[in-house]
Design goal:
By secondary structure, the chain is α+β, with helices and mostly antiparallel strands. The chain contains 2 helices and 2 strands; from the N terminus they run E-H-E-H.
Length: about 70
């Protein structure tokens, strides 16, 4: 199972993954997708790691797309 998350603003999927890795030591293993500006998050990792990684995303996405 997986979740597809759309990215705001002008960020690319590559930028998103690199910034998350640099800023939070979080790595989002990727899947190829034909959908632009998206990241795919696997739901097959251990629950604790999934929750920790998912908790980072809202703050990061808000930072990348200030209102």
């Amino acid at each position: 199972m997986y979740a597809i998350i759309g990215l705001p603003g002008d960020i690319t999927d590559e930028q998103c993954c690199l910034e998350l890795l640099e800023q939070h030591s979080s790595f989002i293993p990727g899947f190829s997708t034909i959908l632009p500006k998206t990241i795919v998050i696997s739901l097959i990792c251990p629950e604790k790691e999934f929750r920790q990684g998912l908790a980072i995303l809202p703050g990061y996405l808000d930072y990348r797309n200030p209102k």
